[in-house]
Amino acid sequence: MSSSDHTADPGAESAGELSSFDSLGLDPRVLKALKDVGYETPSAIQAATIPALLAGRDVVGLAQTGTGKTAAFALPVLSRLDVSQTTPQALVLAPTRELALQVCEAFERYAAHLRGVHVLPVYGGQGYGVQLSALRRGVHIVVGTPGRIMDHLEKGTLDLSELKYLVLDEADEMLKMGFAEDVETILADTPGSKQVALFSATMPAQIRRISQKYLHDPEEITVKNKTTTSANTAQRYLVVSYPQKVDALTRILEVENFEGMIVFVRTKNETELLAEKLRARGYTAAAISGDVVQTQREKTVNQLKSGKLDILVATDVAARGLDVDRISHVVNYDLPIDTESYVHRIGRTGRAGRSGDAISFVTPRERRMLTAIEKATRSPLKQMQLPTAEDVNATRLTRFDDQITAALEQSERIARFRDIIGHYVEHHNVPEADVAAALAVVAQGETPLLLSPEDDRPQRFDRDDRERPDRGGRVRESGRREDGDRPERRSRGAGTALATYRIDVGRRQRVEPRQIVGALANEGGLSREDFGGIDIRPDFSLVELPADLPTDVLDRLRGTRISGKLIQLRPDRGATQRSGADRPARKPRHR
Ligand code: AMP
């Protein structure tokens, strides 16, 4: 591809001199926003991509979700934005409406100190009205799905004649969803002088061809994965959605037999917030981040060494090189942004010949990062389940017994209380066991000793992590994004039963599988894995989808339009009467 291919090597920075955002050449107002968000150092893909983009190079970045690729392209675009230009300067193409909204939110966060920057999400399913009026008022950055962007281009409602930056985000996903033609048309019909950044988790031949055809001498950036982990550290992971992380951690703290623990989070701000939550739950926890002065850091580390402190909530930077034998557990509360950091993190445990435990929280959309970690470290992580109320109660009862045993060993103090209790038993005529139970009530206070089975009410650990606060916030212009407005993204686990659904568009409407997948995925929050076969008939189509689609998803899909026609999605009652040969057998083209 290019003679100047580049391999981002996170290992180089971990050796000591950590790179910083300050040295990358970004606009000071963008740097200020990064400080607010709490990022300490650029991720590997950011450190390599940002200077290249700022220098005006086209870039092909091999990176997946969770590596920080959004900031890798958003920060240089924002740093060079001309706010006085009223036609769109930057266009980001994303495979799904969900990703488009996330990218918009990221742009808005990083643009917090830039005046008057307008970012517009454009995706199918949303009314044209909002998009048109925003476009008329003037937009600097458009983030959209290829299909809807094409619609606007065909209608003449989106002027890309002065486009300076084009980003293809998750290019391989866009192709899988059947958007290849649209993507190529957009690449071909926008100014030749524009700068292009293409990000993809994989590099199939089609993407290589597109990049050779439309990009100018691109710099290819790959994050190097050369890592090994210690064999005496047991590595496990727990699938958990963002809002459930605190409760999950609390349960783990209850049942795991830990001595000292480091809990890794992604941002400085989060270190203090989480440490505070843990202290409120009765644990001795402290936060360290790059902001904590050296003397305070040393003091905290000494407390951890001596056992005055059991839990340290830390960022990658703050915990680098930390060497404390007592650390029996590392918890990746947030997954790291690259595999090298993962290895550094878990290297904090299993020290001095001891065994260690590493537990990683993985949100459903981070599964790919998990696979990357497993591949890079060449060791599979074992999935664990959230400890149940029963597990927690078993440990609580054991601890309760242990406390009694320990107190009984304090013979002098026991002797002093024995007379007082004897006096009470005699004068109130109450069995000694009841008095002991009453004293336990006094000692326990208002907090129940045991969890109840209701505490195990079905946990939705298959949910997306979109509630994550740093992804939150409203998207200006769209007028749509309110909590709960987006369809919950759901993914079909292996073995989920499929059912046949019927939609009222077919060959007559010239519908293609990619349009069906695109519309249903975007509107219903479905992922590609949710789709079975698609069979396009003259007047209707049959689509295989999970049999257990929730009612709200069904309702939303019923009202979806494809090629302007209401699709009226409903379970296909005719399927059972049709012959086997008639059943949808054709796989969608996008697979
Ligand atoms: P992305 O790969 O762009 O989806 O980013 C994954 C997550 O990493 C997002 O929650 C970002 O807010 C976060 N992130 C991006 N860059 C950094 C950084 N340099 N330091 C810490 N967190 C980051």
From TrEMBL:
Q: Where is this region: Disordered?
A: 1-20, 449-497, 564-591
The listed location of motif Q motif is: 19-47
Q: What class of enzyme is it?
A: hydrolase
Keyword vocabulary terms for this entry: ATP-binding, Cytoplasm, Helicase, Hydrolase, Nucleotide-binding, RNA-binding, Stress response
User: Residue limits of the DEAD-box RNA helicase Q domain?
Assistant: 19-47
The UniProt entry, under InterPro entries, shows: CsdA_RRM (IPR034415), DbpA/CsdA_RNA-bd_dom (IPR005580), DEAD/DEAH_box_helicase_dom (IPR011545), DEAD/DEAH_RhlB (IPR044742), DEAD_box_RNA_helicases (IPR050547), DeaD_dimer (IPR057325), DEAD_helicase_DeaD (IPR028618), Helicase_ATP-bd (IPR014001)
Give the main location: cytoplasm
**What is the superkingdom listed in this entry's lineage?**
Bacteria
Q: Where is the Helicase C-terminal domain?
A: 245-392
Database matches in PROSITE patterns = DEAD_ATP_HELICASE, HELICASE_ATP_BIND_1, HELICASE_CTER, Q_MOTIF
Q: Where in the cell is it found?
A: Cytoplasm
Quote the EC number.
3.6.4.13
Start-end of Basic and acidic residues biased regions: 454-491, 570-585
Give the Helicase ATP-binding domain ranges: 50-221
What GO molecular function annotation could you give as one example from this UniProt entry? helicase activity
* Reactions mediated catalytically: ATP + H2O = ADP + phosphate + H(+)
Question: What the protein does?
Answer: DEAD-box RNA helicase involved in various cellular processes at low temperature, including ribosome biogenesis, mRNA degradation and translation initiation.
Record's family? Belongs to the DEAD box helicase family. DeaD/CsdA subfamily.
Q: Mind telling me what this protein is named?
A: ATP-dependent RNA helicase DeaD
Its lineage reads: Bacteria, Pseudomonadati, Pseudomonadota, Gammaproteobacteria, Lysobacterales
